[in-house]
Amino acid sequence: METNAKRLVELSAQGEVSSPLGGAKAYSISPEGIPAILPGVGGITYNVKIGDTAVQWEADHVEPCVSVKNKDKEENGALNLLACVGNIAKVVSGDAKGDTGVVTGKHGGVENVLVDFDDKTLEKLVIGDKILIRCIGLGLSFAKYPQIKAINVSPDLLEALPITYDKTKGIMQIPVTHTIPAAIMGSGLGSQHCYRGDYDIQLFDKQTTEKHNLDTLRLGDIVAIMDADHSYGRIYKTGAVTIGVVVHSNCVTAGHGPGVTTLFTSAEGKISPYKDKNANIGVYLNIGRFRKTRKGRTK
Prior knowledge:
Elements: E1 11-17, E2 28-29, E3 35-36, E4 44-45, E5 65-69, H1 73-82, E6 88-91, E7 100-107, E8 112-116, H2 119-124, E9 130-135, E10 149-150, H3 155-160, E11 164-166, E12 171-176, E13 178-181, E14 199-200, H4 206-211, E15 222-229, E16 235-248, E17 259-266, E18 271-275, H5 281-285
Parallel strand pairs: 12-18, 13-15
Antiparallel strand pairs: 1-5, 1-9, 2-3, 4-5, 5-8, 6-7, 6-9, 7-8, 10-17, 11-12, 14-17, 15-16, 16-17
C-alpha cells in the first residue's frame, strides 16, 4: 500500500494526567427521567482498559486508563489535533518518568487525549505528571485511494491493521467488530472536522441495540458506521462508510453513548467492512487487556 508516510512530520505535544471532573450539578438524568450520580471523565482509571466492555460500567463517559490534557487552551487544541491513535506517549516527570504508553483515542467536549499504560506505570503515575506524545499521522493519505481519507491514524496503527485491498474496484477492506447505523449516532454531530474528539453511539433504542449486538461493544473495538461521511465534519450520507474506534464508555444522558474517534472515511463508500470479533486496537497494538499475550511494543 502506497502512502505518504515518509513525508509526515513527527512533532511533540505535551499535556499532563488530568484530574477527574465533577461540577455542582452532580446528577445525570436519563431519557426516562431517572437521576444518577456516577464516575465520569478524567483521571487515572485503574480498572477500565482497552478490551473491557464499553457498556456495562456504573459510569458516565468513563475514559480507559489515563486521560491527558494541557491546561493551556490553545496548546490543548494542538495536542488533540496532532495526536493520533497508535502514537507513543512518554512520561517525562514523576516516579514513572521514562515509561511509555500508546494513544487510544480522543474525547471531544472535555478535549482529553486517552493513553494506555501498563499496570506498573499506572501505580507510579499521579495527577499532574507530564506526558509527551510523539505525534505523527496528521496528513496521512493513500496515493491510489483518493476517495478514502485517513483521520487520526498513526503509521504504526496503519501498519498493524490487517487491511486488504480490491484494486480492481478501488475498495479498502477493513475488519470491524460491529456495524452501526448512522441514524443512532448522537453527540458530536455538527463538528466541522473529525481530527479531534469523537461522537457517540446512542443505545437507547432496544431493538436497534439488539439487532446490531451493541451491548457487546468493547473499548478499543474498531467499528463501521454505515451511511456516515466524516470527510469534512460528521454527516448522514447514504452509501458513505466511516470506520472508527470506541474510546469511552456508555452514558446515561440523552444523545450520548460509547464514543467513537474516526479512523477512516469514504463519502463514496469505497470502504468495505468485514466482521472480525478480534478487530480491536488492543489486539493490533498489544495494549490494554491484550498486553500480556505477547511481548509488548510500548517499551
